Amino acid sequence: MALVETRTPVQGVAARALPAADAQRAQVPRHVAVVMDGNGRWARQRHMPRFFGHKAGVDALVKAVDIFAARGVEYLTVFAFSSENWKRPHEEVSGLMSLVLVAVSKYLSRLAGDGVRIRIVGDRDQVSDKLRRAWEEAESRTAHNTRITLAVAFNYGGRWDVVQACQQALAQRLAPEQLDEAWLGRHMALAFAPDPDLFIRTGGEMRISNFLLWQAAYAELFFTDCLWPDFGVAEIDAALATYARRDRRFGAIRPVA
Ligand code: FPP
Q1: Which of 147, 199, 222, 249 has the most CB within a 10 Å radius?
Q2: Which of 22, 59, 66, 85 is an active site residue?
Q3: Of all protein residues, whose CA lies closest to atom 22 belonging to ligand 1?
Q4: Is the predicted pLDDT of residue 153 greater than 70, yes or no?
Q5: b/e string for 71-97 if b means 16 or more Cβ within 10 A?
Q6: Does the beta carbon of 152 lie inside 6 Å of ligand 1?
């Protein structure tokens, strides 16, 4: 559908028409963000401890990376441990930390061989030296891969991200007029990726939970009851098909045909 210039004054500013190139609705999201929720319930359904669900969650993640890559997604960002997850029982927190170490040793070679670039986003100050070293190894061994970037948000929170970017502005003594959306965007944890196009949450809850608050401003939201360990190829394709039917306008309008 051809787009025409629109001149609707919005707060004194002319509304921007979508560029012609955007008229071609992108069928595949470049960047998908996922809240991998439901591991605990998945384990409970099987009368197993929660850790069993998180372990299955890692396996599901490794499969999901390959499926999203095969569908043409360039960036996959997953919420593995939130700034708020420290409130969980000590046993679960330390279980998740050791699971990361196990996952890195079990899957790093495979992901590296599959062309996956791994990046970690979040506050690394609070994690152990051992974990930091594992992240560094995962990042350096995959640094030249280009098939898909897997960004693992670990000890991450959307509010933390905004605050740490503002702290950089203050540390650099930026003048107020120098601080704008573009500057902040360049100093946030996901500065290397375009904003997410599709935001998926599994596990039945319908909230963002402090994930990518800034970056998901125009993401299409997709919520599913499917528990994360069950989120396989059929569910991924359903999410991508739903995305392909969405009409993204980014605040602009489409003319009536
Ligand atoms: C939410 O399920 C899931 C998490 C808090 C952790 C997700 C982490 C993984 C899948 C492991 C990722 C590890 C690596 C190495 C990237 P929940 O525990 O809140 O489930 P529930 O809502 O059913 O209780």
Answers
A1: 199
A2: 85
A3: 38
A4: yes
A5: bebbbbbbbbbbbebeebeeeeeebbb
A6: yes
Distance 80 CA to ligand 1 centre (A): 6
The position carrying tokens 């909230």 is 207
Q: How far apart are CA 164 and CA 172, in angstroms?
A: 12
Is 125 annotated in the active site? no
CA–CA distance, 200 with 224 (Å, rounded to integer): 8
- Indicate if 195 belongs to the active site: no
Measure the CA–CA gap between 111 and 51, rounded to whole angstroms.
23
Per-residue tokens: 214: 């800034």
Q: Is the CB of 37 under 6 A from ligand 1?
A: yes
- Given the structure tokens 């996901």, which residue do they identify? 190
The more confidently predicted of residues 213 and 23 is 213
Task: Tell me 228's DSSP state.
Answer: G
Number of Cβ atoms within 10 Å of the Cβ of 185: 14
Q: Which amino acid is residue 136, in one-letter code?
A: E
Residue range 221-231, pLDDT digits in tens: 999 999 999 99
Report the separation in Å between the CA atom of 36 and the middle of ligand 1, taken as the mean of its atom positions.
Answer: 6
Q: What is the pLDDT of residue 112?
A: 98
For ligand 1, atom 3, the nearest C-alpha belongs to 37
